[in-house]
Design goal:
two-stranded antiparallel ribbon, about 450 residues, 26-stranded parallel beta sheet
Length: about 450
């Protein structure tokens, strides 16, 4: 009887906790010194919040942070010389989301997260300025909206097991914040297990820098999923793209990958030369008869003198599988500076596209040991196009379980796999991700019973 009473008491306590509203702490202006955010509070960003140089922001696992929809453009900006440690766990992710009620959250409800580092970029003069209203601090400190320096080993902290939802506020036409913007971040920084959902601009964009990233998810965004510019040359391994067929950027079009050396396609150094491996990209064309927004474009659009390389990945259901744009990029490809190898492409309306008329792209593509499949079903993934319960795991008969190759020196330091795409037999999305965030109440942190009952 005593055990039954204790159990009933615990259930009652859990119900009461689940109904409670955690205290809301409003945050505005500048963060200085060492500041700790805990999962017993909800933090509400009121406008642009700047973590100033020399400051450290520590965010406890399970903490909920909301961008205020009543303060347009609310965002968290970690400036050069500052650090953020937002370290969640698989059972207690940290969530940045909209302050709107469940059922009414939408893209661009708030700004997003921008982190500035002191690594090198190829912007003339070595210093760039973020998109998004330039992010200059209202107190007049213009440098708070800038990124870049000379230290490629720079450390801006760590983000792991973090979700970023409903970001991308447009400060002006075609001038939005990304869900996660990494400006000249150095290799001392750790970016791992990040899910960006329903972003109005790019989910992830790197402006220069050398940071390595892993286990990234871009879910139902509006613009590009992985965008690299201004000399980014880190490594990114294990990633997911899942597109909504009805949503694509009407201004520039939506690509899985978009990559430029810079906006002018110059030879400014360091070159954009990032290396991606083990990405599973599920485009808008789940089937041959799926109706899609015509602004969906390519699985990867590599242009403007970029030297991007993609290996051991899967691209399913894109109008164009791969576009190599411009003479400079085709020359980079011929010189093995831009590489595309050991990938699977399925159900592309048009497999390849090149704007360099004198270049025959097909032989170059074929030497990369890439696999072309007629249908997405031929890839044999479990349930990759579901918006309620997606699973990207290969079935036992999937060609994705083999065919990876890590002998290229660009892949040195990455985890060697036999499989192509983001998964072998282990689902690393379990526990910390959410593919239906608009149903979440977000009234308590993830320490609470609300998310565990």
């Amino acid at each position: 009887m005593k055990r039954i009473f204790s159990t009933l008491t615990l259930i009652l306590v859990n119900i009461l906790l689940a109904q409670a509203q955690a205290p809301v702490v409003q945050v505005a202006g500048n963060i200085t010194g060492t500041v700790n955010w805990t999962n017993t509070n909800i933090y509400l960003l009121k406008g642009k919040v700047y973590v100033k140089a020399g400051a450290t922001l520590n965010i406890q696992a399970g903490t909920i942070i909301k961008g205020d929809i009543n303060t347009p453009g609310s965002a968290l900006i970690v400036t050069r010389g500052a650090k953020i440690y937002a370290i969640g766990t698989p059972t207690q992710p940290i969530v940045f989301t909209s302050s709107a009620a469940p059922g009414s959250r939408a893209m661009a409800d708030w700004g997003g997260i921008a982190i500035a580092g002191n690594a090198t970029c190829n912007v003339p003069g070595g210093i760039g300025t973020f998109e998004g209203g330039n992010l200059s601090n209202p107190d007049g400190t213009v440098s708070d909206g800038q990124y870049g320096g000379l230290n490629d080993l720079d450390n801006s902290g760590e983000l792991s097991y973090v979700r970023i939802e409903y970001a991308g506020y447009p400060f002006a036409p075609n001038n939005e914040l990304n869900s996660l913007t990494l400006g000249a971040i150095g290799s001392g920084t750790k970016i791992s297990h990040i899910q960006c959902s329903y972003g109005f601009d790019d989910s992830f964009e790197w402006f220069g820098g050398t940071v390595n990233c892993d286990h990234l998810i871009s879910y139902r965004g509006n613009d590009d999923d992985f965008d690299t510019d201004f000399g980014y040359r880190g490594q990114v391994q294990f990633g997911i793209i899942l597109r909504d067929p009805n949503v694509a950027d009407a201004v520039s079009g939506a690509n899985g990958f978009e990559s430029d050396n810079d906006g002018n396609g110059s030879g400014n150094m360091p070159y954009t030369a990032a290396t991606f491996s083990n990405i599973t990209a599920c485009g808008p064309l789940a089937t041959a008869t799926t109706t899609i927004d015509p602004n969906h474009k390519r699985g990867a659009h590599i242009r403007r003198n970029s030297r991007l390389s993609i290996y051991n990945s899967i691209f399913m259901g894109y109008p164009v599988g791969l576009k190599i744009d411009g003479d400079s990029c085709h020359q980079n490809a011929d010189n093995n500076l831009l590489t595309y190898k050991n990938n699977i492409l399925s159900a592309s309306t048009q497999l390849l596209d090149s704007t360099s008329g004198a270049w025959n792209m097909t032989p170059w593509f074929n030497t990369g040991n890439n696999t072309v499949l007629a249908n997405n079903s031929d890839v044999n993934l479990t349930n990759p196009f579901s918006f309620t319960n997606p699973s990207f795991l290969p079935l036992s008969s999937s060609p994705a379980l083999s065919g990876a190759d890590f002998t290229d020196t660009k892949l040195t330091g990455m985890t060697t796999t036999t499989y192509r795409g983001a998964f072998g037999t282990t689902d690393w999305t379990a526990g910390w991700t959410n593919f239906q965030p608009d149903t979440m109440p977000y009234t308590q942190g993830y320490y609470a019973v609300e998310y565990k009952m």
